[in-house]
Design a protein that fits this description.
about 130 residues; mainly beta; four-stranded antiparallel β-sheet; 11 strands; globular
């Protein structure tokens, strides 16, 4: 089993920044993909970004949703088993609960690709 804990959410003004963290514990895998998704009230959970990693080669590919391209950056610190989502130039439309998820079989942008999910952290962008 893998446990994921998100942190770093909060209230921020439009144009501001936040950094979300996703700390993993439990079983480790030689290959994994960690993704960030978000769910706004009344909407479906949507893909935000993902980062793949292998023990042999380190960080592999990254992918972003069009809506966050150029504003959000996903990264990974293997020493801490933590994936980050740096969010800049935040907009009110970014308001949502943000979830991290891990796939052990090569994940993409679909929720069904991911085996393990965190509980989420609230991000609110408002003046």
């Amino acid at each position: 089993q893998v446990q994921l804990v998100e942190s770093g959410g909060g209230l921020v003004q439009p144009g501001g920044s936040l950094r979300l963290s996703c700390a993993a514990s439990g079983r480790t895998f030689s290959t994994s993909t960690t993704g960030w998704f978000r769910q706004a009230p009344g909407k479906e959970r949507e893909f935000v970004a993902r980062i793949s990693w292998t023990r042999s080669w380190g960080v592999g590919s990254m992918e972003y949703a069009d809506s966050v391209m150029g504003r959000f950056t996903i990264s990974r610190d293997n020493t801490k088993n933590t994936v980050y989502l740096q969010m800049n130039s935040l907009k009110p439309d970014d308001t949502a609960v943000y979830y991290c998820a891990t796939s052990t079989a090569g994940g993409g942008s679909s929720r069904s690709d991911y085996n393990y999910w965190g509980q989420g952290t609230q991000v609110t962008v408002s003046s």
